[in-house]
């Protein structure tokens, strides 16, 4: 799954929800800039209120005063309540200057009026004005002090907030909660816990705030202790714990809490759906959404659909993703995309599907909501469908490129073999991080430029960039493919010096590398010391023993795997069938082959049938192997017939089977050189020289030539490749001279 921020449920905001209910002015959402005067905001006001607001905005204060006098047929208290209500309404809609004009013309005011004006300044981020207003207030109560405290804490001025808290003449539970939340939001979790413990009275909001603080910092053990101590929990408490567990990757624990929580709301469902999605459990996320819609009358929110869009892209379900988008449009839910995250999730989804027309439509429809993440999604989408030129054109117009933009383009060029263009981008990249270096190294390995990949690794370290675990995994895979043991050992030593503990992927890479380099004992030593093993660990060891002809050891590991509760897969059976083939264990091979489908519901693939053909052939059961081929549930390809042809050997008894297999191969691939060569050798071995001569002439007429044998050697970090009959190497004369001398001496 792409690196997304875990924003399905912002944990600290959960604790604020209940606090808002207790203090009307404290936890209101802050406006970063003043909301413009528009018709949209007028709709939230009555006709009289809108007219009054118009007078105030135009500084027609006398008209405003006359209108208020006409509307106010109340006693003194009633007028104050009415005017204060208007002031609060204007402030909440962002019309702070108009609210202040109304405040100034009020003939009577009380502490609630002052608090409403103070809250307006705080809510709209005008803290300097709020502070000046606070200092000249004729009367302050606990709401005044708490409102100012929240403003300072939200602005990051926590030291001033702390001093204000200490100076407060009186505090209530909301004041204490505000201090705790302010400290948490400013990264002072330990101090927040001290304040929490000093509280004379705690309510559910107090506990929720502290739990959310621990969950935000991924300290779920401490959060769980508080959760267990709570006498009264609400839906926010449970949802905070669920989101916290999902945040640290403990999805199963989060799901267990979700199942036993007494009540759920849309935020709870969304937290769990998001938890599944961001941890890669896409199927579970989609199934949970279906349960939510099927059994509960809950309307999904924007965050729900953000998670679902990523789940659809993760599952590669284009139709389901399009249905999801259609539901958004039909129900007008796409209009709730106030911050653009929903648009970006849909853009990412369509880019993952390679449906770039849809992705570009969303991109063009919401230009103001497009950030560098949007451009990166489009770039990766075009690369995914092979349109590198379009990706490059988009890359060229990105307003601000980040590291992902550069690395995506580099990966794109490398994946299509355009190494020089990738190198040009890489060395022009303003800041190269470990991910970019690893992408370059991996790309060179994929393009079989092993020496260049090793040089890049050395350059990476020389520039002080610490390699990632994936960097080492890539290099270990390359050394294993080349059977370059010395280089592999060097990488292993570097790992031992720089890493305190290995992760699972690294250990698996080491097992595979040592097994491919012929050091099966070293591979088994690493395997034996592993704390946790996955199917790749088991399969690597089974394959390693099998390729070394150690059938009994391979089968023993297979039995251990079954006892560990780790289910085998198709690769596992490929390893054990290969082991049986090397050892000639026909009956055991048949048992395992049958168990694949009967016991484990794994359908054999072509590679499994080829293993069985080799197993039977090595045991001399060529006729039985041919019968197996003829009974295949799928159409045999040239690989199947090639395996059958290969086991026929040079015995006259198998000549007819060989001819039939070769005929089938040549029908599928008339220019198949190995089939011609094997058939020629079989004719020669059985004295059929006429047929052999005719076949060789036919090969010349068709231009059929066997690919030359290939070998290589690593010397000073460079791979030297040799082809049979090829004399193009720069030192070929020296090597031939050395060979002649050696042969002469022998």
From TrEMBL:
Keyword Repeat: yes
PROSITE patterns from the UniProt entry: PPR
PPR repeats: 79-109, 110-144, 172-202, 203-237, 265-295, 402-432, 433-467, 534-568
An example Gene Ontology molecular-function term: RNA binding
Pfam families on file: E_motif, PPR, PPR_2
Signal peptide positions (record): none
InterPro entries found in the cross-reference section: E_motif, PPR_At4g14850-like_plant, PPR_rpt, TPR-like_helical_dom_sf
Keywords recorded for this protein, A-Z: Repeat
Annotated GO biological process: RNA modification; system development
Protein name: Chlororespiratory reduction 4
Gene source species: Lithocarpus litseifolius
């Amino acid at each position: 799954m792409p690196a997304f921020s875990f924003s399905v449920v912002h944990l600290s905001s959960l604790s604020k929800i209940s606090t808002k209910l207790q203090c009307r002015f404290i936890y209101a959402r802050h406006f970063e800039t003043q909301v413009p005067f528009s018709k949209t905001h007028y709709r939230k006001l009555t006709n009289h209120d809108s007219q009054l607001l118009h007078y105030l905005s135009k500084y027609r204060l006398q008209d405003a005063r006359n209108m208020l006098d006409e509307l106010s047929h109340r006693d003194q208290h009633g007028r104050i309540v009415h005017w204060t209500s208007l002031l609060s309404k204007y402030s909440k809609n962002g019309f702070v200057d108009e609210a202040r004009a109304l405040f100034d013309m009020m003939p009577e005011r009380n502490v609630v009026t002052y608090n409403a004006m103070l809250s307006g300044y705080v809510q709209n981020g005008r803290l300097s004005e709020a502070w000046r207003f606070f200092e000249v207030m004729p009367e302050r109560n606990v709401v005044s002090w708490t409102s100012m405290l929240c403003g300072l804490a939200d602005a990051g001025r926590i030291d001033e907030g702390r001093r204000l808290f200490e100076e407060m003449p009186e505090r209530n539970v909301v004041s204490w909660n505000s201090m705790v939340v302010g400290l948490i939001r400013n990264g002072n979790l330990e101090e927040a816990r001290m304040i929490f413990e000093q509280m004379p009275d705690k309510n559910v909001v107090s506990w929720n705030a502290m739990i959310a603080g621990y969950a935000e910092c991924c300290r779920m053990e401490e959060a769980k202790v508080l959760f267990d101590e709570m006498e009264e929990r609400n839906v926010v408490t449970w949802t905070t714990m669920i989101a916290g567990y999902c945040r640290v990757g403990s999805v199963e624990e989060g799901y267990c809490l979700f199942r036993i929580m007494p009540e759920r709301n849309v935020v709870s469902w969304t937290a769990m759906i998001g938890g599944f999605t961001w941890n890669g459990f896409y199927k579970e996320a989609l199934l949970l959404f279906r349960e939510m819609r099927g059994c509960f009358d809950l309307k999904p929110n924007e965050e729900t659909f953000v998670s679902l869009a990523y789940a659809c892209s993760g599952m590669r379900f284009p139709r389901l993703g399009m249905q999801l988008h259609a539901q958004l449009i039909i129900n007008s839910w796409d209009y709730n995309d106030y911050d653009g995250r929903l648009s970006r999730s849909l853009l990412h989804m369509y880019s993952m599907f390679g449906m770039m027309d849809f992705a570009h439509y969303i991109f063009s429809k919401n230009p103001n909501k497009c950030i560098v993440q949007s451009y990166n999604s489009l770039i990766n989408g075009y690369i995914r469908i092979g349109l590198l030129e379009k990706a490059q054109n988009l890359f060229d117009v990105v307003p601000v490129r980040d590291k992902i933009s550069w690395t995506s383009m580099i990966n794109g060029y490398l994946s299509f073999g355009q190494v020089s263009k990738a190198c040009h981008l890489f060395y022009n990249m303003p800041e190269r991080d470990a991910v970019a270096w690893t992408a370059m190294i991996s790309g060179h390995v994929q393009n079989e430029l092993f020496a260049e990949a090793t040089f890049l690794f050395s350059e990476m370290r020389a520039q002080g960039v610490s390699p990632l675990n994936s960097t080492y995994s890539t290099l270990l895979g390359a050394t294993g493919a080349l059977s370059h043991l010395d280089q592999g050992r060097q990488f292993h030593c570097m790992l031992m010096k720089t890493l305190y503990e290995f992760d699972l992927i690294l250990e698996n890479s080491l097992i595979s590398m040592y097994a491919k380099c012929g050091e099966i004992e070293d591979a088994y030593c690493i395997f034996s010391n592993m704390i946790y093993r996955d199917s790749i660990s088991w399969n690597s060891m089974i394959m390693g023993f099998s390729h070394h002809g150690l059938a009994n050891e391979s089968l023993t590991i297979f039995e251990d795997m079954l006892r560990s509760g780790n289910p085998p897969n198709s690769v596992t059976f490929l390893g054990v069938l290969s082991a049986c083939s090397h050892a000639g264990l026909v009956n055991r091979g048949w048992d395992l082959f049958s168990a694949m489908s009967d016991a484990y519901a794994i359908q054999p693939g072509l590679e499994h049938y080829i293993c069985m053909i080799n197993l039977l052939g090595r045991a001399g059961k060529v006729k039985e192997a041919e019968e197996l081929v003829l009974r295949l549930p799928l159409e045999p390809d040239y690989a199947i017939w090639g395996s059958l042809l290969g086991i026929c050997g040079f015995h006259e008894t198998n000549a007819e089977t060989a001819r039939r297999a070769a005929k089938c191969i040549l029908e599928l691939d008339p220019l198949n050189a190995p089939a011609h060569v094997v058939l020629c050798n079989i004719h020669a071995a059985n004295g059929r020289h006429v047929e052999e001569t005719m076949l060789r002439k036919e090969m010349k007429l068709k231009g059929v030539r066997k690919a030359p044998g290939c070998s290589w050697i690593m010397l000073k970090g460079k791979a030297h490749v040799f082809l049979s009959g090829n004399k193009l190497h720069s030192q070929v004369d020296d090597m031939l001279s050395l060979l002649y001398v050696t042969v002469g001496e022998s």
